[in-house]
């Protein structure tokens, strides 16, 4: 409890940014286990989200973007499109913000247990699922539905989850609720 209070106070003092060490000398499974999640989606795996191990210490400044800071956002939920999110992250070209990947998400999930919901937009697993479409004339057409799945940390049922936010739509039609945090690496903050 005291540790959560310290982390929450540190986040308020940092005004939306943290510094993490992205030394990845542990396996994917070890990084996932270190987050102490109540549940981990079975599709979050090194096969779907690969990253290389590294013995090099690297400090990264992570900045968080959130599109609605008001407390009443729970009452008046709004959505923001994927295009708007990426546009905002890339708006300040001089700073060179880049969306975080799975390695940063797992590192943040281990060290900062109070940061949710948080998504890694640079880590996307694209896959397809077979589907049968029935036309109005009764004709059956086999089709593939393309899916974009983004790894994320969120709270539900009193626990923290490492899950996937799946979209069955192209990026320009993907919509997020405004209470999500979107992490970005600050290339000048390194």
Write up this protein.
The chain has 190 residues and is α+β, with helices and mostly antiparallel strands. It has one domain (2-189). 21% of the residues lie in helices and 35% in strands. It has four helices and eleven strands, in the order αβαβββαβαββββββ. The chain has helices at 2-14, 28-34, 82-91, 102-111, and strands at residues 17-21, 39-40, 59-65, 79-81, 98-99, 118-119, 125-134, 140-156, 159-167, 175-177, 181-186. Helix 2 (28-34) packs parallel to helix 4. The longest helix is centred in the N-terminal third of the chain and has 13 residues, at 2-14. It is globular and about 60 Å long. The two termini are 31 Å apart.
Main beta sheet: strand number and arrangement? 9 strands, mixed
Q: Helix-strand pattern, N to C? A: HEHEEEHEHEEEEEE
Number of helices: 4
What Rg is obtained from the alpha carbons, in whole angstroms? 18 Å
Report the uncertain regions: 5-15
End-to-end Cα distance, whole Å, is 31 Å
Task: Kindly report the average pLDDT value.
Answer: 79
* Classification by helices and strands: alpha+beta
Oligomer: single chain
Helix fraction by DSSP (H/I, runs of at least 4): 10-25%
Outline: globular
Beta-strand level of the residues, as a percent range?
Answer: 25-35%
Total tally of structural domains? 1
Number of distinct beta strands: 11
